[in-house]
Design goal:
Distance between the termini: 17 Å
Strand order of the largest sheet: 4-10-9-8-7-5-6
CATH architecture of the largest domain: 3-Layer(aba) Sandwich
Helix content: 25-40%
Structural class: alpha/beta
Radius of gyration: 22 Å
Shape: globular
CATH topology of the largest domain: Aspartate Aminotransferase, domain 2
């Protein structure tokens, strides 16, 4: 059995941070979202497909900052373009710089649903903007949602501090279940402004799902039947499933889409794109503004990231790399004798443990993710991982071996 990691500096910084910041760190980065006492709490640096914590422990980074790292950490070509922009022009001004138009043209070229676009900073910014635009366009109130869409009032799962009136007109439906959506629309369809859905299903702490044949097409048909705007939340799938997103891969074009994460390889930018007549609601009727939304550095980073991905055929290589890794992991899981499920192949791998009446799954999950981190592979128990371009063959072999050995340790608990 691998030894517990030395985490003295992480724990010291955590204790200090608890006196300075509520919870020490924000949200999903807090220790209880990993395995407390086993996982680092602070990273020091990252490069390529690796991260190093404040105690000097090095890991194959299979979480990729929760998705923005599509190429790798510290991509010199991207960082050089950003630094050049800082030194030559500056980046935070009272008016917008021309690079905005260049990036908009590139998104319109690549994304099937994009006739116009606007830029914000985070996934939550983008989904909330899309909802506001859809409500203005349809003059309707209600929203049907499927998936995680951020932390803003209308969609966050934790309702403390949020008046009920701000989310009571938002109705959730399960992924890949057309009957549930149809039933929801029969009751609320006449007042439904939008259906927002992640085209690839990745519900929190549950297996990743591909759309069933015809599912996304049927969702679009239902939206149009009731005059609702169909929004694809491609924050995770965009610039990963293809340069045009999952919509390009599956051949279903929504009315609006939101993109982020991998678009700029870690720089904070997201985009709302869609049909011209709907997007034009944001010209006068819908107010979208922020001091920092027009900043150019992230736009430069996004353009350079996309340039590299096109030039070097990154996604084809990434799919090939992911398929090889995930095929090996699937075989390991199948032969492990452990009640667990592998999903998300080839780009968003995830190992989950189905619930059982005795709640043994919780113990198995903790043991598995404990053994994985001790072997130098950084994953998350409640969130799928990612495969990045800079993950080497050796990195992915280390991850596969760690998974195999971790499952062997888990199996001992079944005895």
């Amino acid at each position: 059995m691998s030894e517990k990691l030395k985490l003295k500096n992480s724990e010291k910084l955590y204790k200090e941070a608890m006196e300075l910041i509520p919870g020490a760190t924000l949200g999903i980065r807090r220790p209880y979202n990993f395995v407390p006492g086993e996982y680092p709490i602070f990273f020091q640096k990252a490069e390529g497909g690796h991260v190093i914590d404040v105690d000097g422990n090095e890991y194959v980074d299979m979480l990729c900052a929760y998705g923005p790292i599509i190429l790798g950490h510290k991509e010199k070509e991207i960082d050089d373009a950003v630094v050049q922009k800082i030194r030559e022009d500056g980046f935070c001004m009272s008016l917008t710089q021309p690079v905005q138009n260049k990036l908009a043209k590139k998104l319109i070229e690549l994304i099937p649903s994009a006739e116009k676009c606007l830029f914000v900073k985070t996934g939550s910014d983008a989904t909330t903007t899309a909802i506001r635009i859809a409500r203005s366009y349809t003059k309707k109130l209600k929203i049907a949602r499927c998936g995680y869409h951020g932390w803003h009032d209308w969609c966050v799962e934790v309702k403390e501090g949020i008046p009920q009136k701000l989310w009571e007109d938002v109705f959730a439906f399960p992924y890949n279940d057309l009957n549930a959506l149809e039933d929801l629309m029969k009751v609320h369809g006449d007042d439904m402004a939008a259906i927002i859905i992640t085209p690839v299903g990745h519900p929190l702490a549950h297996p990743v799902q591909e759309p069933k044949p015809g599912y996304l097409e049927a969702v679009k048909k239902i939206a149009e039947k009731y005059g609702a705007v169909l929004i694809f939340d491609e924050i995770r799938s965009g610039f990963r499933y293809s340069l045009g997103g999952a919509q390009a891969k599956y051949g279903v074009t929504p009315h609006l889409s939101v993109f982020g994460k991998a678009m700029a390889n870690g720089y904070p930018i997201s985009a709302v794109v869609g049909k011209k007549e709907i997007m034009d609601e944001a010209e006068e009727r819908v107010f979208i503004s922020s001091t920092f939304f027009p900043n150019s550095l992230e736009q430069v980073a996004a353009l350079k990231t996309i340039e590299i991905m096109e030039r070097d055929n990154i996604l084809d290589k990434l799919w090939e790399k992911g398929e090889k890794f995930c095929n090996e992991v699937q075989k390991i899981v199948d032969e492990s004798g452990v009640p667990c499920q592998f999903s998300g192949a080839p780009l968003m791998p995830y190992i989950t443990f189905p619930k059982d009446e005795e709640k043994l799954y919780k113990k198995l999950r903790v043991e598995f993710y404990t053994q994985v981190i001790r072997r130098g592979v950084f994953l998350q128990p409640y969130h799928h991982g990612y495969v990045a371009y800079r993950h080497t063959e050796a990195d992915l072999q280390q991850a596969a071996t760690a998974i195999k050995e971790a499952l062997a340790e888990v199996k001992k608990l079944l005895k």
